[in-house]
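Q: What changes when fe (ii) ion is included in the input?
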Amino acid sequence: MISPSSVAGVKKIMYAFSSLNDLGQIITSNGGFEEVTKSGLYLILGTVSAAQGAIFRDDGARSRLVVLAHKGVDGATSFRLSLHDGDAEALVDAPGVVEIRRAPQNLNSFISHNGATLTALRAALMVPLRVGGNLVGLMTVGARFSGGDYTDDDLQILAMMSQQLSVGLSNHQLFQSLQKKAEENRALYEDLQDIYNDTVRAFAAAIDAKDRYTQGHSDRVARYAVAIAEELGLPQDEVEALRLGGLLHDIGKITVDTSIIRKNSVLTDRELLEMHRHPTVGFDILSKINFPWGDLSALTRHHHEKVDGNGYPDGIRGEDLLLGARIIALADAFDAMTTDRPYRKQISLQETLREIRRCVGTQFDPRVAKTLFQVIEKELTGRSRKPAIIPSLREKFDSQRIREILQEVHDDCGYPGMA
Ligand SMILES: [Fe+2]
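A: The predicted holo structure follows.
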């Protein structure tokens, strides 16, 4: 304890406790860590009337300590204290405050190989900063302003203040390592996400590669499905499920004979049967995978269903059909109509819109069809804030004609959003 043997001693105790309190507030403040440490050092040096000092911290390499804050020494920013074998242990075992010229023997090596730096710092005292038996840093303190030795009270004050400093330093190091870990985990998650997306895209490309006419089909279906889902205001996880569903909806075609897929004439009954198996094969493949978003296997199974119940494989009708399946079904048909196929050439966008309109209520869900029309209408009038689903729509097509068709559909169905 600090000895209250005189009025001056009592004053010193009160000043020390006041400083200790101030140091606690500085260390727990929200300031930048280097600023906080610098304020702490200035307060500690002021409390024991020292002109120079520095605070070092372990930089994580465990072989050296680097300067965090300093006072009264030019160029100290680049100073380092190296830790050789046994130095950290010796500093952990050392007294709270070490007078360099009376240091315990096991610190001689540390003091010797850091002699030049300690001299440049004009260090008279070393205060190891430790928490839970670990060295987190070190503080050096120069000679007293007034000259002469430090008193035992000074040393005790320094030891108490250094404990607060040690905890602050340790907390900061913990926080930094947690931040680093969180950053590493985030990067790892992004890498996994990229691998996942690349794998799904590779699958989609493998499906499309079976048919030269459908290059990029899965990608476009995903794009249309996402645009419809976003326009409908579906939650983000359902939008993501539709993106993956669009990419993988035809995965069952991997087992269909390529000659059937590429055939440019009418399919025989046997070939049609084979072709119509792809939704259930896709379901069998995807139902074995635990996707984090939505039921992709169900989307794949039902992408050839029709709302009047005349689709395949299960003949599900109306609202019993998953909304996602109704969206993929329309996106799939929209792409099929607007691209060349082995058995026919593509039809124009105008004809496609008319065909969709004709099939609303039988093949397509009215709300989903209206939403696709809205997306196209927004794109046509430049009101869409999303990436275009039909590149160069306004340049490639007769905007006026398409708007007229959309207006006709609007008059029929009254979908919102038309000018
Ligand atoms: Fe299909």
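Observations recorded in class: The first strand starts at residue 53 and ends at 58.
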